[in-house]
Amino acid sequence: MGNKGKEEQNYARQPFLLGVDAITQHLQTNLDTGLTSAQVQEYIQKYGENKLEGDGGVAWYKILTKQATNAMILVLVLAMALSYGVEDFIEGGVITAVIVLNISIGFYQEFQAEKKMDALRSLSAPSADVVRDGNQTTIPSREVVPGDIVSIKTGDTVPADLRLFDVMNLECDEAILTGEALPVAKEVQSAEREDLGLGDRLNIAYSSSTVTKGRGRGVVVYTGMSTAMGGIAESMQRKRRKPGRSMSAKKYGPMQPVKGGALRTFDSVGKFLGLTEGTPLQIKLSKLAYTLFGCALLLAIIVFGVNRFNVTNEVAIYAISTGIAIIPESLIAVLTITMVVGMTQMRKRKVVVRQLSALEALGGVTNICSDKTGTLTQGKMVARKVWIPGAGIYSIENSNNASDPTEGTVTFGESKSRKEVEAEKLRRQEELDAKRSTAGIQFDVPQEKMNKDRKAEQPVPEQNIVIDNPEMTPELQAFLESAALCNLATVRKVQEDGTSRWKTTGDPTEIALQIFAHRFQHGKDTLEKELGWKQSMEYPFDSSIKRMSVVYKSPNRDDNIVFTKGAVERVIDLCTMVGTGEKEVEMTPETKEGVLEQMNILAEQGLRVLAIARRFTTLEIAEHSTVERTEVEEDLCLLGLAGLYDPPRLETKGAVQACATAGIQVSMLTGDHPSTAAAIAREVGIIPQNMKSLPADVAAAIVKPATEFDRMTDAEIDALPTLPLVVARCAPETKVRMIEALHRRRKYAAMTGDGVNDSPSLKLADVGIAMGLNGSDVAKSASDIVLTDDNFASIVNAVEEGRRMFDNIQKFVLHLLTSNVGEVILLICGLGFQDESAFSVFPLSPLQILWINMLTSSFPAFGLGKEKAAKDIMERPPHDNKKGIFTWELITDMLVYGTIMGVCCLSTFVFIVYGPGPDGLGLDCNKSYGASCNIVFRARAAVFAELTWMILLSAWEFKSMRRSLFKLDPNSTKPLQFIHDIWENQFLFWSVVIGGLSVFPAVYIPGLNSSVFKHTAITWEWVPAIICVFIFITGMELWKLVKRTTGWFKEEETEGMKAKRRILGHGLSLRQGFFTLARTFTKSRSEAKSEMSEKNAKVRVPPPAVQGGVKEEV
């Protein structure tokens, strides 16, 4: 059952029968430090990668079949058959070669693209938390080897078969393996019976099963095909049929075989033609291809009709020409390559695309609903304040390292009431105003104001005695025990490269609390290993109730102690007492109000506030106990509040501003308290600093707690003047309601999520975004894209990349279809050119058209697919995903440019045939060169060269659909900006240059010109061709000028862009992202000082102070 070519993973007895020591000895691993790097490399060579055979491979034959059966190839096959049918073997042979070449190139490109996409998708595959070389690290599941020490928790997918040695309330869903509907509770004891089935081996966690509850650690015993899942890999990889496809008459009735057969046939044909599988854009372009195929047949019928259905060889060849002309042969290949380039670029910008449809959808996103912690903020929590009832407030100062409990100082002071806090804030503001008003300028100040300032300058009697490095008290000890034990984070000091440093693992919130406990030598390791505390049960954090509890046995007591931490509102309602020892009081309404006041004071400082509580109980609560959680989490005693600060990321504010400029509204959906959420939202610019400047109904709707939002009916939500920009204490169900509300307002929404319960909202969102660092495997599997750095700015990068790709697809589609329109106009009008035998003489031969479509058009189209993002790409509103790429502007441009192109080519052909010199269309000039065909062949050569150059130069023009080629960057002052712009995309540049030069050998090489392309060498005929090329470019520039002047097809300016212009022009604004330009909390003091010195150097007289740095519009 092992991997091919690799050693079997065998043990003396089955791992579920062995003790952990025997397994670690067999695999030469260590439970604390794991494997060494050398051992990992050895085991990879020995046992292979942790993957199933045939898992995720690219089926080359499916890609080859797809390439051979698209609409473009079918037209060429018909053309080939007609050519052989009329015994034009040169043309037939060339078309055959083109078909083989097209299929080969398309197959190679798509095969490489699919392999690259598989590699990129694997980055978002399930990951594993392992210990190697003594360090906790996260690796892709495929890199796991036997002997790895793996940690699993709720929401994880088990990466390999594990022999568990440490579990806490661990339950796994093994239905995928055993069919057991209920999760299986796990344990660590060795089994005694050898005949146990898979579902009864309770000390084994199986690969691909999902952790539904609790946490655990285990040593990897089997990987890849050696796992239990490897034994049923073949059945796992078998695809399920869609509903209604059964052929069972016994089960579904006598008509079911007919119905099922018809639906299966429909599915097969749709899949074969690319009409039912693929992204929306791929399906849309497949439909376009078959529509054009139908048009090709229609044009062929028109050709036959004009020739009175006298289908001779010449008529058939002309029909071939028109059919080939309307088909953009390279369209699908260019699309595939562009998507791969888009995925690669997103990977570089910290975004992994799981669903190709997300590439198309990102550019149309109108709303982003983001979590706060770790996404908008750094996710590095620091315990800044701890309030203990009856005692006071402990504060941490001068600590910049969230992982070091020895950095900074702890101070203790008395807690203050709301009135005292407001009075101190007012005093500080007056002092600041006084300093600003005396920064070098003397004002005529009224005597009353002078007296007030003098009072402000007088020393204020100290209201609060602050103690540095306070001593341990019973109240503090109780708080520390609860904070440290109701906690899964670890803090340890390690030696690396001869220096000691602190290392942490776990959730940032729990790390912050554990670091605070370590400051007083009350960390979890100290309490458990040195003081004898023993854990008997764990109730993990649940996002629906927003709390976590553990049950411990104290070394000094006989009863159990329940420790609980969580959201203040969810914990305080369970408390009947407050404080400890002599300061323990009953939780009365007045006491509760005082606690909530302290919570609000902390939250308004931008701190995330958690409540810490405990309870003594005589209940017998052991692991996997049947005691209800509600019975355990009651009659608690509140020990204190912890205020944690999570600074916003430096780039968040700029990203929010970029969203506003791009017409995207950002909403924060967080589990934090409303005041905490609002404080951070103000800091990053999601909501305004001064809410009073907004209309009352808008201000009331901007920030809402989830309890209020969830109570509202859909009608009430729809009646709001705006949907909330901040939703606090958010539950998974709240996210779902938010997405539904956005959809009712016809918005296109992206939603972030990281937890198990976030999968419904991620699936419901138009673009589901999972967190790569802290997200669960369940959330990743439900998402469309995964952020590898959990950074909000990466979402904005993904939107920009989605818009770039959308723009480029529009550009190359317009480029390809414009040439097709021009060719069809030329050939349809060419039906009127009839020779002496009354047969139509085509202005372009079939092979000329193939050459132009396959070689001249394809490479510039590839180049357009690689275009960089336009300068203003994030200054436009989101595009309409329902319309897709085929906007009215694109359709109109295609017809206008195609008509100009066709008319110019037709004019050149007419001028040469009927202009200076002898006239005449000759005889039988569609088939071969003769003395009477010299003029027609020369006219064809000129039209061929002219059309080639027009198509190539139009690729440069399509770098922008509205701006002039000679002024692509309106803000540039460079004298030769045009040259810089066309040189910037070197693939496109050389495609145009080399394609333009290829005209000369095609025109002048004997035999190739007359026998293959049906044209001959030319002299003076270059003049009308070149003149018409200039006319075509001038026509394109004039059409762009008309669009810019009249405003046709112009996108409406975003509100954010209007705000940006007003700010640049010193105007007023209240748009999201422009609420404040004040420095964020995350800037260092040195940065602030350098900025201040620069300002002072530039401006002698400082401007009046305005809240937030920007005057707000009232």
TrEMBL record:
Location in or out of the cell: Cell membrane
- Which coarse location class applies to the principal site listed for this UniProt protein? membrane
Q: Topology with regard to the membrane? A: Multi-pass membrane protein
Checking InterPro entries in the record gives: ATPase_P-typ_cation-transptr_C, ATPase_P-typ_cation-transptr_N, ATPase_P-typ_cyto_dom_N, ATPase_P-typ_P_site, ATPase_P-typ_TM_dom_sf, ATPase_P-typ_transduc_dom_A_sf, ATPase_P-type_domA, HAD-like_sf
Q: Where is this region: Disordered?
A: 399-418, 1086-1114
Where do the Cation-transporting P-type ATPase N-terminal domain residues begin and end? 14-88
Per its record, the protein catalyses: K(+)(in) + ATP + H2O = K(+)(out) + ADP + phosphate + H(+); Na(+)(in) + ATP + H2O = Na(+)(out) + ADP + phosphate + H(+)
Q: Which residues fall in a compositionally biased region of kind Basic and acidic residues?
A: 1086-1097
Enzyme Commission designation? 7.2.2.3
A molecular function (GO) term: P-type sodium transporter activity
Q: Name one GO biological process term.
A: potassium ion transport
Gene Ontology CC entries for this record: plasma membrane
Keyword Ribonucleoprotein on entry = no
Specify the enzyme's EC class, one word: translocase
Q: Which cofactor does it need?
A: Mg(2+)
According to the record, the segments passing through the membrane are 68-86, 92-111, 288-309, 315-341, 812-833, 845-865, 886-915, 935-956, 987-1005, 1017-1039
- Which segments show compositional bias classed as Polar residues? 399-414
UniProt keyword annotation of Acetylation present: no
Protein family according to the UniProt entry = Belongs to the cation transport ATPase (P-type) (TC 3.A.3) family. Type IID subfamily.
Per its record, how is this protein called by name?
A: P-type Na(+) transporter
Q: Which organism is it from?
A: Lithohypha guttulata
